[in-house]
């Protein structure tokens, strides 16, 4: 395919295979994985969109199962070149090999093969991990955003994981929703070790910045404490939702974040999300929000460690907290839905928008009584272990400009719901498959044909 170099760093690879090259190659495991007997005898899982289960800036992930179906692996192949990748992965693997996965619950066993995948006669590196029966963080949170006890339990376990890794002088390097899986019973597992720091890498350059919606605008040094800011962002998001589930729909401008995003870090004083969290009825949420603001202003390193999670906080309305904005009826009509009254925040004595301001709570049909956070239902054990998923790295969906208004976000939400409709997804998958088959047909008929001018 016109590539001029081999894969290993010593031979100076310049142009690794593309996503399409890998998609074609992995459908023939015996040819693609000549040095791994298990992968060579496996079957590639293919859905209507093809064999790839996830792709990002640096690579793509495929799912393969053993002949008897008892074992399933996630195989990551790289679509970008890095001279330091082979040496870094060998160092990271050597450090992790000395850890006990039974004790380090966050750890997912990993194998790195510097020449593990064969594409077009050349060998390229791959990473192999077991496919976990676990849910990606955002999927898990969306199903349990009304279960505060579950959210606080995961926040507490996540905090323990980050603290334990600091004890080992290990940092993940890219803590974000796409690299966090939740397994039963509410245990945090970390995947994608591309940017990991281990003591043997001291003095090395940071291989990547990390997800923009979790990293501080002013980057911190590559070292054992570099996860503290993104970890605080995640801890704050989980605890903020536990205190007020409505923040999930109110603050999220896109599906590429938990609650906070890059624009909140770049302009914290004007951030609606940080202001809402600062008004939280949970005192620990208010304290973490204040610390996050200090982190953004700090010029010292390392940042303070994560605070311990209070799993049964006493919730109370903040005196002088800003009232929740009333719904924009013009936006509701433009989005094709009637204007809805908004319930009062937990702990508030003010009537919900749309009710008579002079009436007592519960005296008018349109008024909503204060919600009891602890009255939210806890998911059943069966629901907690359902919807197993695997290793799917974040692809980095472009988000809206930081100046997007709340009314504009509300108008966009019905569109996102439409795209989650199973019928729409199926039609989209069929159309994509037909286009791909047509392109393959043209290449077979005329090998010199190219969609590019």
UniProtKB/TrEMBL annotation:
Return the InterPro entries for the record.
Kinase-like_dom_sf (IPR011009), Prot_kinase_dom (IPR000719)
Determine the domain of life of the protein's source. Answer: Bacteria
**Per the record, which residues fall in region Disordered?**
317-413
Listed transmembrane segments:
423-445
Return the SUPFAM superfamilies for the record: Protein kinase-like (PK-like)
Entry's Gene Ontology molecular function annotations: ATP binding; protein kinase activity
**Basic and acidic residues biased stretches:** 325-335
Which key words tag this protein in UniProt?
Membrane, Transmembrane, Transmembrane helix
Name by which UniProt lists this protein: Protein kinase domain-containing protein
Q: What is the organism of origin for this protein?
A: Streptomyces ficellus
């Amino acid at each position: 395919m016109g590539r001029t170099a081999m894969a290993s760093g010593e031979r100076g690879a310049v142009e690794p295979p593309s996503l399409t090259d890998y998609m074609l190659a992995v459908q023939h495991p015996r040819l693609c994985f000549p040095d791994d007997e298990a992968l060579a005898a496996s079957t590639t899982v293919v859905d209507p969109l093809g064999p790839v289960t996830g792709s990002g800036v640096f690579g793509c992930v495929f799912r393969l199962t053993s002949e008897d179906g008892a074992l399933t692996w996630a195989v990551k192949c790289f679509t970008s070149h890095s001279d330091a990748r082979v040496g870094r992965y060998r160092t990271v693997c050597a450090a992790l090999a000395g850890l006990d996965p039974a004790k380090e619950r966050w750890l997912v066993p990993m194998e790195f093969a510097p020449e593990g995948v064969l594409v077009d006669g050349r060998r390229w590196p791959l990473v192999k991990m077991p496919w976990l029966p676990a849910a990606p963080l955002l999927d898990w949170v969306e199903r349990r955003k009304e279960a505060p006890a579950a959210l606080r339990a995961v926040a507490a376990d996540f905090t323990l994981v980050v603290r334990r890794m600091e004890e080992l002088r290990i940092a993940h390097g890219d803590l974000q929703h796409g690299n966090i899986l939740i397994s039963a019973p509410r245990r945090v597992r970390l995947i994608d070790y591309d940017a990991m720091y281990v003591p043997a890498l001291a003095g090395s350059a940071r291989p990547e910045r990390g997800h923009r919606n979790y990293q501080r605008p002013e980057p911190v040094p590559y070292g054992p404490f570099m996860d503290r800011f993104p970890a605080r962002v995640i801890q704050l998001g989980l605890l903020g939702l536990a205190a007020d589930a409505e923040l999930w729909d109110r603050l999220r401008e896109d599906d590429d974040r938990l609650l906070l995003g890059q624009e909140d870090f770049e302009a914290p004083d004007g951030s609606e999300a940080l202001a809402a969290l600062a008004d939280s009825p949970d005192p620990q949420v208010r304290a973490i929000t204040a610390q996050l603001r200090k982190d953004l202003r700090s010029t010292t390193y390392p940042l303070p460690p994560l605070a311990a999670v209070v799993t049964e906080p006493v919730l109370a309305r903040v005196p002088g907290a800003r009232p929740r904005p009333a719904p924009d009826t013009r936006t509701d009509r433009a989005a094709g839905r009637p204007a809805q009254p908004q319930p009062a925040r937990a702990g508030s004595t003010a009537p919900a928008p749309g009710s008579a301001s002079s009436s007592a709570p519960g005296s008018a049909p349109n008024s909503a009584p204060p919600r009891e956070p602890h009255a939210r239902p806890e998911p059943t054990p069966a629901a907690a272990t359902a919807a197993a998923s695997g290793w799917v790295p974040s692809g980095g969906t472009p988000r809206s400009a930081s100046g997007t208004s709340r009314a504009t976000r509300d108008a966009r939400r019905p569109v996102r719901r439409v795209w989650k409709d199973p019928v729409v997804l199926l039609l989209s998958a069929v159309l994509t498959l037909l286009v791909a088959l047509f392109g393959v047909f043209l290449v077979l008929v005329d090998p010199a044909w190219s969609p590019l001018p």
